[in-house]
Amino acid sequence: MNEVVRSLALFTPEIALTAGLMLVVLVDATGASWRNAVGRFLTVATLALALVLALRLLPAGSRGASIFSGMVVVDPLGLFFKVILLAASLLTVLLFTFRNSRELFGLGQTQDTAPLKRVSREFAQPPGLEKTLLSRALHPLGVAGSAKCL
């Protein structure tokens, strides 16, 4: 039992990240109007907590330790990259805003969408396609008809 408690103490940043991820997924699954703000807050809080917990492990990890009966090793290089990645993730989440973002609103939902719609319509159905040999080959068994049914 003492081994498990020691192992969990050295595994706290990963436990915090897992718990935070589960909370963010649950909040996002609600579909409520406040979910974006709460999800962002939970993400920042989780990353900050994991970063603090990883920094607290630096003295313990400087000599290296194996946890969970030797299945996981906590070493200085691993802790260094853990701190760097958590700090970079936290900085990214804090600096990135979803205002004016194509990822949030989707490509083609900008203010002037007429050119995008025209181009997509032209690529979807080039003029005169139903009269080509290709459309007859694509049509099942070459039966009379047009490619518009595809």
**Which percent range describes the beta-strand content?**
under 5%
Task: Give the terminus-to-terminus CA distance.
Answer: 65 Å
Helical proportion, percent range:
55-70%
Spatial strand sequence of the major β-sheet: 1-2
What oligomeric assembly is this protein in?
single chain
Largest beta sheet, briefly?
2 strands, antiparallel
Q: Radius of gyration, rounded?
A: 27 Å
Tell me, what's the shape?
elongated
Helix and strand composition category: mainly alpha
Please report the number of helical segments: 8
Mean pLDDT: 76
Low-pLDDT segments: none
* Total number of distinct structural domains: 2
Give helix and strand order, one letter per element, not per position.
Answer: HHHHEEHHHH
Molecular structure report:
There is one protein chain. A hairpin with a 4-residue loop joins strand 1 and strand 2. The protein folds into two domains: 95 residues; 36 residues, no CATH class. It is elongated, with a radius of gyration of 27 Å. With 150 residues, it is mainly α. It has eight helices and two strands, in the order H-H-H-H-E-E-H-H-H-H. Helices cover 63% and strands 4% of the residues.
